[in-house]
Amino acid sequence: MFPTCPPPLTKNKRTLVCCEEMADGERMGMKSKRILVTGGSGLVGKAIEQLVTEGEGQADEEWIFLSSKDADLTNAAETSALFAKYQPTHVIHLAAMVGGLFRNMKYNLDFWRNNVHMNDNVLHSAHLHGVTKVVSCLSTCIFPDKTSYPIDETMIHNGPPHHSNFGYSYAKRMIDVQNRAYSEQHERMFTSVIPTNVFGKYDNFNIEDGHVLPGLIHKTYLAQRNGTALEVWGSGKPKRQFIYSLDLARLFLWVLREYEEIQPIILSVGEEDEVSIKEAAESIVTAMGFKGEVTFDTSKSDGQYKKTASNSKLRKYLPDFKFTPFSQAIKETCDWFVANYELARK
Ligand SMILES: NC(=O)c1ccc[n+]([C@@H]2O[C@H](COP(=O)([O-])OP(=O)(O)OC[C@H]3O[C@@H](n4cnc5c(N)ncnc54)[C@H](OP(=O)(O)O)[C@@H]3O)[C@@H](O)[C@H]2O)c1
């Protein structure tokens, strides 16, 4: 831990707000933070980086965004070396093996092993290096399959997850177990957030392996280019709450700075903003100006029918937080994908 400013990282091109740029008064009077973001090259990490770059970082914050090129976090020695090198005071832990329904169904073992190793390595290195606060990322898709709705933060461990993604789900649930244990045994402030389905720029737009929205955006793009029908997988009936990556990033900044509970908090739009896959597809069709036929392949799995989550805990803390309207966020994401088609992950 740093009683004063941690040593500056002037040569690191990922450093966006450096302590050296702080006024003396800020150095003396404010708590300096060096924030390490694991998974900084992914969908959520890039959104946080955008906000920080655009001025939403604070003067006492130094941000370091990491990818798997910096260290393989499934490897304990590499993770420990990373913490020794950067000596963070705070960590946002986003790195994970992530994927949509079909990738999860194929690789449950890999999802379990990779995520358990990454989470354990990051949390234990954070503990050993005296990190003040860690915010990790769970997901609403790890909740019990058989449950009452809406789900809330107290229900994570109440029963088995959906069979399609049990590897990912159990690995993510263990973060909450570890957070409680680090708090009880070592008084660590390690907490977690629970986002619903995230989408936005820099998503994985791979049709087979990605999540439903980026997959649909990519399929709509191809259908338009090739003059074919847009085929939606499944019945289109399942419902989801989608959160725009920039809204989630803004909430992450708030959790890092203000949220003081070990227990997780659901970061989601309201229950009234749940949309069906069919409605989501229609929104993409409108955003991309697609004029062709839309079909539904009901031979493909629907996954969990719904996962309606309550955001009332979030609303108690932030009653006035404004989410970007779904259609606007979809339009911005589609426009980015079309403009960056060659570079986008797909
Ligand atoms: N996307 C969603 O809908 C959603 C919903 C709820 C919760 N979440 C959670 O949100 C977090 C961020 O998800 P995301 O959608 O931003 O994921 P993403 O776009 O797939 O990015 C994953 C990130 O993890 C890094 N990573 C993967 N394996 C790694 C390893 N072995 N060592 C070091 N870094 C590794 C990747 O680095 P490279 O770029 O170098 O590969 C990348 O930066 C995850 O914890 C995820 O479980 C996501």
Automatic annotation (TrEMBL):
Assigned EC number: 1.1.1.271
Domain NAD-dependent epimerase/dehydratase: 35-269
Pfam families attached to this UniProt entry: Epimerase
MF annotations from Gene Ontology: GDP-L-fucose synthase activity; isomerase activity
Keywords, sorted A to Z: Isomerase, NADP, Oxidoreductase
Top-tier EC class: oxidoreductase
Gene3D superfamilies: NAD(P)-binding Rossmann-like Domain, UDP-galactose 4-epimerase, domain 1
Pathway: Nucleotide-sugar biosynthesis; GDP-L-fucose biosynthesis via de novo pathway; GDP-L-fucose from GDP-alpha-D-mannose: step 2/2
GO aspect biological process, one term: 'de novo' GDP-L-fucose biosynthetic process
Functional summary from the UniProt entry: Catalyzes the two-step NADP-dependent conversion of GDP-4-dehydro-6-deoxy-D-mannose to GDP-fucose, involving an epimerase and a reductase reaction.
Family classification: Belongs to the NAD(P)-dependent epimerase/dehydratase family. Fucose synthase subfamily.
Name of protein: GDP-L-fucose synthase
